[in-house]
Amino acid sequence: MKLPDIRKLKLPKVSVQEVIKQLQVPTIKPIKIQAVSLKLDEFTIIKKEFQAPYTFLFTLSKALGGEPGQFVQVSLLPYGEVPISLCSYDRKNSQLLIKGVGNVTDAICALDVKSKLWIRGPYGRGYPVEEMKGKDLVVIAGGTGAAPPRSVLDYVELHRKNFGNVRVFFGFRNPEEILFKEDIERWQKKFETKITLDKGDENWKGHVGVITTILEDQKFEPNTAFVMCGPPIMIKFVIELLKKKNVKDEQIYVSLERRMKCGIKKCGHCMVHGKYVCRDGPVFRYDEIKGMEND
Amino acid sequence: MGKLLKKEDFNRFLLKLKSKGELIAPVKRDILRFEPVEDVKEICLEGLPWFPIKKFFLPAEHHLLEIETRRPVFKLRTNQQVIFGAKLCDLNGIARLDKLFLDEIPDQHYKEAREKTILIGIHCKEPVDENCFCESMNLKPFYDLMFYDIGDSYHIEIGSEKGRMLVSKFKDHKMELPAIKTEKHLKKIDISNYFDDKHWQKDTEKCLSCGKCTLLCPSCLCYDIHDEPDLSGENGFRKRLWDSCHYKDFTEVAGGHVFRDQRVSRYKHRVFHKIQYFKDEFEDFMCTGCGRCIRLCPRKIDFADTINKLK
After folding, report:
1. Residue B244 burial (10 A CB sphere; 0-12, 13-18, 19+)
2. Is the pTM value of this prediction over 0.90?
3. Is residue B126 very low, low, confident or very high in pLDDT (cuts 50, 70, 90)?
């Protein structure tokens, strides 16, 4: 099919104001298109660490690249493909946290060291770390949702001078389910880090309660960015609490979870109100998706 | 400037098309449907075929990758095809698929099929039945060649260089092109403020979530990707299969949470995608007004009527 000659097309007359309006750069920049590749790359698992029941941290033979908060499509051939968030940033060997919750993830969790995975990506728009420069940072995550914020904290550790006060709040179900124990110990020395459990046991001396209970007595300066990831119910209640503390929608960055198949804005599975979570997200500024995050 | 083809020369033209590749045209078998044609006399140009032509570009089941000893092998199909007798609504459906599949990250399988296909349309003299509403959908000329029945001959409009090559030897002919007037219309084209309308619930109560409407839609493209291993566990295929946003598992995520678990929210999602979301991004309706989803709905849910009833 031959396309019409662009030079011969009649363009509609647009006022100068209109053009300026359109040229205004949106606050969150879309990702660079060149970065997207459909090619499956071969990776070898060089380390497999037990994190929690059915949950493992896999270290790969190569770096994946990408920004904090982006995701990759991991294939175990010939069994299937799953979208997995990056959980490290700028490391020589990228890491992925995988929890066995379906056919493919179960099979991946059963793999041993030296097994091969085929990965394409990274895809999507991550947390806008450039935009958060010079701000205080509050990282809030629940359960397996701790993986994407870990890549943000990796970035923060590398560029500590770019950020003000950094606070980390993680919620887990019980002591068994606590993820990234080594990292948490390290973060506790650098940042204010608080962990809460839905249900403790006799050895647990920390906080017990849902995540909002450790956020309630916190004070947030207007110059704070919130990095959030977790189950929809957690996001709902945390945002309700932040609203009470006069936090603006524009300060909150939340990573949405959807079923993704293609990862390149085609298959339609991850569409939320006309936005594709795989390309326009998975990280959204809350004002972009307000009221539709559960649709 | 168009071309003229006498009806007595029509069959010869079809035979010429057959030499360009597999000829696909509406054939009356159990139902009227697009199928590869053996004998050109079988072709039936009356009425709208049940299924749109999207399956020749985006098959219901398609191998994206072949997996050999746990390694991906990428293969493209190679046959040439000529699609004859598609109506403007079906052709515009392909124009919609192009926008998504041939964007900055083109789908190689789709691109290959598009490049190897000649699209030849036939203009509807009048709407097929009372369910057509293409007049509201702002359809644009999108074809290699378009045939207009003018009694004893066909007037042919040329849409591309590929089409011009096929009819270069025919006599020139000028004609004012007729437009299609439909009975049914969409009274609203911007439904962005009607998301919480009560009528959605009423109209979708009888929906079965069977997915027939998405299956029959010329522009519905949502698909599932599914790997299928053989018994050795070493080889297999990565398949692309049609999927439907009406199915409950369409938005199911790990852990079993379903985001659109209400039937009404799934129906609403489809209507909004067809009329609003796609237009917001590409300035065209995704819906092309062919009326198939109305005509063949087992519960007689009327897509256009649902939108017209919103208050």
Report:
1. buried
2. no
3. confident
